[in-house]
Write a structure and sequence with these properties.
Shape: elongated
Largest sheet: none
Radius of gyration: 16 Å
Structural class: mainly alpha
Number of domains: 1
Number of strands: 0
Strand content: under 5%
């Protein structure tokens, strides 16, 4: 995860980055569970429980502000399409006969997706969005930016 630009000092970015770490760890546990046949469905459920609210926070908060600002619309569109793709694969697992190779491929895409947000979108959003936008999406009023 990014630690060099200071974007984590913005409360929402800090929260999303912390969630990315938890998501990456859960994805790793799922990958291991698939490899070891050690209850991968439970690991999938754990990942989805983290991923779904995280994605909603991104799309309804940061991404909405970036769309409204206008300069990063295509990047946001691409990231939302990746959300849909990854969620679609993970959410469509046939629990009676799981097909794990597409899930493992989606985990690879998830890793790249998180990296793009951490090292691209998040730092860019800090310099792109005005303070008024951050005030609207900051989770805790009066938090340090």
């Amino acid at each position: 995860m990014c630690n060099y630009c200071g974007c984590r000092e913005f409360p929402l970015i800090g929260r999303l980055s912390t969630e990315h770490e938890a998501i990456a760890n859960a994805a790793g546990r799922l990958r291991t569970a698939v490899r070891d046949a050690a209850d991968p469905l439970a690991a999938l459920d754990d990942l989805l429980a983290l991923l779904m609210p995280h994605t909603a926070t991104e799309e309804d908060g940061l991404f909405a502000e970036l769309r409204a600002e206008g300069s990063m619309v295509e990047a946001v569109r691409q990231l939302c399409a990746e959300h849909d793709d990854i969620h679609g694969v993970l959410g469509a697992v046939d629990r009676s006969a799981p097909d794990w190779p597409p899930v493992l491929a989606a985990l690879d895409r998830l890793h790249r997706h998180v990296d793009n947000e951490e090292h691209g979108l998040f730092p860019a959003s800090v310099v792109t969005l005005p303070i008024s936008a951050w005030d609207r999406i900051t989770p805790t009023a009066g938090a340090t930016r």
